[in-house]
Amino acid sequence: MKIQIWSIGKQHESYIKEGVEDFTNRLTKYFTTEWKIIAPPKNNAALNEKDLKKEEAGIILPLIQKADFLVLLDERGKQLSSIQLANFIELQANQSTKKIIFLIGGAFGVDDTVFKRADTVLSLSQFVFPHMLVRLIIAEQLYRACTIIKNERYHHK
Length: 157
Hints:
The protein is of the alpha/beta class. It has 5 helices and 5 strands; from the N terminus they run E-H-E-H-E-H-E-H-E-H. Strands 2-1-4-3-5 form a 5-stranded parallel β-sheet. Helix 1 runs parallel beside helix 5 (131-149) and helix 3 (82-94) packs across helix 5. The longest helix has 19 residues, at 131-149.
């Protein structure tokens, strides 16, 4: 199974880049892992929230293949424990999912068309985090999930 983490916005800030790269490198021991940083629409400053989300959806949706399993990260999604995330990842791998995409939407979230395409919607917390921090959190949690699956020492119960 291949894991991709997509994020709308600019490249990783320097204060996040090192941690994201570290956890991504660790994660690749278990699954092929790639990041896709999707640039926002060029005219994004001139768009209202609704139109911006539609423009972003127009960029994202054509990139997703029919067989891709899309996990939307959104504050309104279901919250999982680290162990539950591990079980979820293991289930996808056992079901022969070829590619699972974790999508971090834009500053205002995502358009309803992206919500409808999502196979599942997860929330990392009831807190709202900056997108850069979400990148680091999801990279670490995916790595933690893999260590749980393999019964390795990283995760402490």
